[in-house]
């Protein structure tokens, strides 16, 4: 930092106050309701999924966080920092309330997000089995602050990189939802088939029957399809070809009525378990490693992983494109597509679908219904485990190969975009984490950081 913009040293206790979260115990459990403000426990904050709610009328206001406030985790997983969420802060966290005359809240967020600050917080936390960071310890952490005008020039650079990461993740989430919506329409509700049947019953000719399926597949009206044909004839032809793949009748089966030409089978008919064990001494330390902790809940996008240098036991080999299914406590819904080759925990089932049914299998094993089946059939009480010999018996209605291949083609586009975004997020995260300490320490100027951001 230049002489014109000197740093001023503080303890955090000089520039912030803390507000403890709400303990849920015998005295407060009556506050839990079906609808209200979400309870922000650490696991909820990490997964952005909320399952418990607090009575809005009775909750102490000091425990309520708004989106512009900072939440810091103090028990168990010490040193995680969150903002942009609203709800009731749980007792394993506290709110960090800055003196805005001295520190900008966004600058403070980035200061607390630094890896060495998290490491230091864990070192000064008490407890061996479960870490606990008390208020006094947190307030003792040292911080060097530049003037407010400099703080307000620094944090937008870091925010910009994080916003790009968040946008990519939102795109991935949208693509996953689109794939599941198509799967449900085609292979669960049989909408294109039923549309054809209804058109036949209404006396439509062959072209009208195909048009009905095209409407069901695309969600477009006849007028919109006419416009598509005029303006994008190749896309129109592709849609028509897809519609023609679906049968125009249903047939009886042991599972009820299914599309004509399709069959009732089991997951094991179109997918297998890939179980390639590898000894720890035979693994290159730089090999990417996936543990259950790297697989997010309810998302096939695997954007975080470790390396074999961190592991100490034998693992399983997987290849790019394999499906990784977390078998410990399957209700956590941890299923993803491997974006790279690597090794994984033996608590993960590596699923290898038949080529023509890849996307079909992916959509099945990442569905809520399949995860429920895995949970119901898992073995053990404290640590229930799913196993492939049971999962492979999961009943499925198997479409013909041409229809499945068409679904493959659509979902492959989605998966390729998802994986491209994963690596872009990885690069952006590395750039942000490199710039973060240098910007906050004054080692790197704002102008140089902006140039690095543009080049990144």
Structural description of this entry:
The chain is α+β, with helices and mostly antiparallel strands and 456 residues long. Among the domains are: 8-146, Adenine-n6-DNA-methyltransferase TaqI, Chain A, domain 2; 267-398, Alpha-Beta Complex (Adenine-n6-DNA-methyltransferase TaqI, Chain A, domain 2), CATH 3.90.220. The chain contains 15 helices and 24 strands. The chain has helices at residues 12-15, 42-47, 105-113, 115-124, 135-139, 148-188, 191-201, 206-218, 222-231, 233-245, 358-365, 368-376, 388-391, 401-441, 446-455, and strands at 8-11, 16-20, 32-33, 37-40, 53-54, 64-65, 70-73, 81-82, 87-89, 93-98, 142-145, 250-251, 258-259, 263-266, 271-273, 276-278, 288-290, 306-307, 315-318, 323-326, 335-337, 342-344, 348-353, 395-398. The strands form seven sheets. It has a five-stranded mixed β-sheet with strand order 3-5-4-9-6. It has a five-stranded mixed β-sheet with strand order 16-19-22-17-18, with no helix packed on it. α7 (191-201) packs antiparallel against α8 (206-218), α9 (222-231) packs across α10 and α14 (401-441) runs antiparallel to α15 (446-455). The longest helix has 41 residues, at 148-188. The protein is globular.
């Amino acid at each position: 930092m230049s002489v014109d913009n000197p740093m001023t040293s503080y303890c955090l206790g000089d520039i912030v106050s803390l507000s403890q979260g709400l303990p849920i115990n015998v005295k407060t459990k009556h506050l839990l309701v079906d609808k209200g403000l979400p309870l922000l426990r650490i696991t909820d904050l990490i997964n952005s999924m909320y399952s418990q709610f607090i009575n809005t009328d009775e909750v102490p206001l000091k425990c309520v966080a708004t989106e512009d406030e900072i939440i810091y985790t103090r028990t168990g997983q010490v040193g995680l920092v969150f903002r942009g969420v609203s709800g009731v802060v749980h007792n394993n966290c506290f709110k960090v309330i800055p003196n805005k005359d001295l520190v900008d809240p966004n600058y403070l967020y980035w200061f607390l997000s630094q890896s060495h600050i998290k490491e230091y917080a864990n070192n000064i936390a008490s407890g061996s089995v479960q870490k606990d960071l008390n208020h006094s310890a947190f307030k003792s952490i040292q911080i060097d602050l530049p003037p407010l005008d400099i703080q307000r020039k620094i944090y937008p650079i870091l925010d910009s990189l994080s916003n790009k990461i968040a946008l990519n993740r939102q795109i991935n989430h949208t693509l996953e939802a689109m794939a599941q919506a198509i799967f449900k329409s085609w292979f669960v509700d049989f909408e294109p088939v039923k549309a054809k049947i209804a058109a036949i019953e209404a006396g439509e000719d062959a072209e009208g029957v195909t048009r009905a399926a095209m409407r069901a597949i695309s969600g477009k009206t006849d007028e919109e399809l006419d416009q598509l044909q005029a303006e994008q004839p190749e896309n129109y032809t592709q849609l028509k070809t897809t519609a023609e793949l679906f049968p125009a009748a249903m047939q009886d089966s042991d599972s009820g009525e299914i599309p004509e030409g399709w069959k009732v089978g089991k997951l094991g008919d179109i997918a297998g378990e890939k179980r390639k064990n590898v000894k720890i001494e035979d693994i290159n330390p730089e090999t990417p490693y996936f543990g259950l902790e790297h697989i997010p809940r309810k998302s096939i996008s695997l954007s975080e992983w470790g390396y074999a240098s961190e592991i100490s036991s034998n693992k399983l080999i997987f290849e790019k494109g394999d499906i990784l299914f977390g078998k410990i406590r399957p209700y956590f819904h941890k299923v993803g597509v491997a974006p790279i080759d690597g090794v994984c925990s033996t608590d993960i089932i590596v699923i290898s679908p038949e080529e023509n049914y890849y996307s079909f299998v992916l959509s099945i094993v990442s569905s809520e219904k399949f995860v429920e089946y895995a949970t119901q059939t898992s073995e053990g009480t404290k640590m229930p485990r799913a196993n492939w010999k049971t999962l492979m018996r999961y009943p499925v209605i198997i479409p013909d190969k041409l229809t499945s291949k068409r679904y493959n083609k659509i979902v492959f586009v989605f998966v390729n975009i998802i994986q491209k975004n994963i690596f872009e997020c990885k690069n952006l995260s590395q750039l942000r984490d490199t710039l973060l300490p240098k910007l906050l320490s004054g080692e790197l100027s704002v102008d140089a950081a902006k140039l690095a951001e543009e080049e990144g």
